[in-house]
Amino acid sequence: MVAAVEPAGPRPRPVTPARVGLYAFLVITALFFLTPLYVMLVTSFKTMPEIRQGNLLGLPAEPSLQAWGHAWSAACTGLACNGISVGFFNSVKILVPSVIVSIAVGSLTGYALSFWRVRGASALFGALMIVAFVPYQIFIYPLVRIFATIGINNSIPGIVAIHTIFGLPTMTLLFRNYFASLPIELFKAARVDGAGFFRIYSSVMMPMATPMLIVAVILQVTGIWNDFILGLVFAGRENLPMTVQLNNIVNSTQGERLYNVDMAATLLTALVPLVVYFASGRWFVRGIAAGAVKG
Amino acid sequence: MSTRDQRCEVSVRGVDIGFGRVKVLEKLNLDIAQSEFIVLLGPSGCGKSTLLNAIAGLLDVNDGQIWIGGRNVTWEEPKDRGIAMVFQSYALYPRMTVRGNMSFGLRVAGMPAAEIQKRVTEAAAMLKITNLLDRRPSELSGGQRQRVAIGRALVRDAGVFLFDEPLSNLDAQLRVELRVEIKRLHQRLSATMIYVTHDQIEALTLADRIAVMQGGVIQQLDTPQKVYREPINRFVASFVGSPSMNFVPGRIEGANGVLAFVGGDLTIPLQGYAFRSPAAPGPAVLGVRPEHVLAGGAAGPAAIQAPIEMIEPMGADSLVWCRMPSGASFSVRVDGEARVAPGGTLPVSFPATALSLFDDGPGERL
């Protein structure tokens, strides 16, 4: 037996094989995910002659932004050769109204479902949740037909409506659970004060929902930005989002494949969600935790 | 604040409320006079908050009517009923300042800014929260928050104030302080107040009349003195009063018109007890409050010697736990200075005028 040591101060934390194994696993996993990102970054700064030498992991000998410039403004996305910037601005045009409208509609639905005990509210909520699990490819063809009939197919309003509809279950769930965690007396007090449906929503409830609002913005921005199929089908030829343009750049290459341009275009496309995550990761965790603990 | 010209009596007429198959209130009637302070007292789940919410219009009634100020408001929105309400959890709007909280209702009603300013200033002065007006609720203590909540009710200048356990979240000292404040407010405003609580001390100190509720039924509706001295049944007797009433099972026995209560070796003559109905011999339960037991020198010649088990000193007086000859414990309130000790005996007697007798079945007062 080990000689008895009088326990005092912090408990000793011995290095055990299990702990070493754990850290090794974590490091390997991190490398597994970081290596492709690293290869993309270095390749995008290399020139084509250097890439042809085949040293995949090496740092660029003479770093150049030429590939990034080409990807942004001159790469061919089919017949037109205006770079991926066209797609970027299309995506922004789709993103901004979609995020605003989907969050507005989702939070309003969540608020109505949690405070205004309408007959059949829980049935409606259940239906919303079940439909959220139906693969959305099933809806695409019917929706195309409907949108074509009412004349908003292949347009910005069309794609905004699509993102609002498909975002509704998640947004509703998010806000309903958050509002359900607030004391009901707050709602009663506002009613005694004479505020109506929209006044309570805008003056009392939404100002309290800031953490959820941030989570919702993150979810919707990344989700809508990364969307491919819906943008391809519903946005129309003029408004194809960045993801679709990226695909076109990579697939419509004639002759030599410009790896550095492809990599740069990909990184440019990934930049928005990346920035959103880095800028708001703290808020994201806080919002999720707030909802989880109280909901 | 201003002298009131609107009528503000409240009348609950045959109200039924249920959630699904559970009936909370059935055919409940309650008439509250102008400027009266009514306390709805009862254990949790007795329907008192449900009743208050129904009066406020926050809950639909399944049947019956609610009248406020001579108007049938059964189908009206809370804001149109001329009421103001204070909640247990304060329910302050967290993202508004104190001023914003107090003025929210007036702003919703579209009142001119000058009038809002005037009312908020007045209410804040009355509640001594003027220096807090620009703070957020999160920067206030519990007591301050509840003052703000009362202030928010005050600015509405309503004829009827509804309080839903407003002091239950506060610590003991603040509770006493705000209790006095609420009573003072009632005298000053002469508004009708309906106050829900499970704290019988609050009920006794504040109310003009107490409605003791259990199982959705008002058991007794009377002045605090009456409820305390002459509880209508065993539930009311045991719920009101702290330390609580002693109960002794036994029988009423009578010979040639002279009745006495007999429990174990204890015999108490009942001359002077006001029976509600002609008395008859039979099983009964005796109820006596600790302070109504005469002890020591006051006990008189007919006193019995009760062995002392335990003493709870409470400052001004002490609660002495004695053992009945039959074996049951009962408590006696004696002066805090009285020299008593466990192991000794205390001479006690039970004056018939301060006793309560209940039947041994449903526990109705005899």
TrEMBL record, chain A:
Chief localisation class: membrane
Subcellular location field: Cell membrane
Keywords (A to Z) from UniProt: Membrane, Transmembrane, Transmembrane helix, Transport
Pfam families the UniProt entry points to: BPD_transp_1 (PF00528)
KW Transmembrane (keyword) present: yes
Entry-linked Gene3D superfamilies: MetI-like (1.10.3720.10)
Membrane topology category: Multi-pass membrane protein
Residues annotated as domain ABC transmembrane type-1: 88-280
UniProt KW Membrane keyword: yes
Transmembrane portions of the chain: 20-45, 94-116, 123-144, 156-179, 200-225, 263-285
Family: Belongs to the binding-protein-dependent transport system permease family.
Protein name: Carbohydrate ABC transporter permease
Classification lineage: Bacteria, Pseudomonadati, Pseudomonadota, Alphaproteobacteria, Hyphomicrobiales
From TrEMBL, chain B:
Keyword Transport assigned: yes
ATP-binding recorded as keyword: yes
Keyword annotations of the record: ATP-binding, Nucleotide-binding, Transport
GO molecular function, a single term: ATP binding
Coiled-coil intervals, chain numbering: none
SUPFAM superfamilies, per database record: MOP-like, P-loop containing nucleoside triphosphate hydrolases
Source organism superkingdom: Bacteria
InterPro entries per UniProt: AAA+_ATPase, ABC_transporter-like_ATP-bd, ABC_transporter-like_CS, ABC_transpr_MalK-like, ABC_transpr_MalK/UgpC-like, Mo/tungstate-bd_C_term_dom, NA-bd_OB-fold, OB_MalK-like
Record domain ABC transporter: where: 10-240
Family statement: Belongs to the ABC transporter superfamily.
Name of the protein in question: Sn-glycerol-3-phosphate ABC transporter ATP-binding protein UgpC
Highest classification ranks of the organism: Bacteria, Pseudomonadati, Pseudomonadota, Alphaproteobacteria, Hyphomicrobiales
